Amino acid sequence: MHDLLTVVLATSNHGKILELRALLADLPIQLLSAVEVLGEQPSIVEDGATFADNALIKARAISRATRTFALADDSGLEVDALGGRPGVRSARFAHERATDAENNAALLRELSEVREGARTARFRCVLALVDPFQESAAYTAEGSCEGSIARAPRGNGGFGYDPLFVVADHDGKAMAELSEAEKNRVSHRARAVRALRAILIKVLNARLDEAERIAG
């Protein structure tokens, strides 16, 4: 089946783009990055108080810029011993232009005195889908993955905090030690995508009905 819908991803994070394409590969959707459509990644001020706020800010900005359906992901790590930090500042935990390695190092420093049983955490993801012709009818879906923070990075896969995040009930493996298939079953982003699928299928069915009516 030909792609019925083009969706622009409101992220420049290569890891997120690859994950979303893998998670939605079975649907007739063409997923493009904002750079592919616009030639550059627009500067968007993510000043929301929650993941949902920031996901909607990004999706609306990209939808306006491209006049296309836009899908945004805002996600991060919530550490209980840090009162839920880094949260919405996960990508900027060490400083505004921090690398993954710098953020991981900053997290380990903050948790250096925290005992094993108190290092619980979760990855949380909110996806926002915006229709360019009905921007007020934005859709969101959420997913989370429980775990804890290791004392040193492990594994070579994933990105972000994956080397430090030990997935609950998964043989003590860090997210970065999981295969792509394993991660795409248990990750916060995978769970958010599963929650969004019903909405995407509804949009696809509407497109199919419209195509059939025009061909009519």
Key features?
216 residues, Maf protein, six-stranded mixed sheet, 6 helices, 6 strands
Q: How does this model look, in words?
A:
This protein has 216 residues and is of the alpha/beta class. The protein has one domain: Maf protein (Alpha-Beta Complex), CATH 3.90.950. The protein has six helices and six strands, in the order βαβααβαβββαα. It has helices at residues 14-23, 34-38, 51-66, 100-110, 180-186, 188-215, and strands spanning 5-9, 29-33, 69-79, 120-131, 134-149, 165-167. The longest helix is centred in the last third of the chain and has 28 residues, at 188-215. It is elongated, with a radius of gyration of 18 Å. The mean pLDDT is 92.
Topology overview:
Elements (H helix, E strand, L loop, with lengths): L4 E5 L4 H10 L5 E5 H5 L12 H16 L2 E11 L20 H11 L9 E12 L2 E16 L15 E3 L12 H7 L1 H28 L1
Parallel strand pairs: 1-2, 1-3
Antiparallel strand pairs: 3-4, 4-5, 5-6
Helix pairs in contact: 5-6
Task: Give a brief description.
With 216 residues, this protein is an alpha/beta fold. It has helices at 14-23, 34-38, 51-66, 100-110, 180-186, 188-215; strands at residues 5-9, 29-33, 69-79, 120-131, 134-149, 165-167. It has six helices and six strands; from the N terminus they run βαβααβαβββαα.
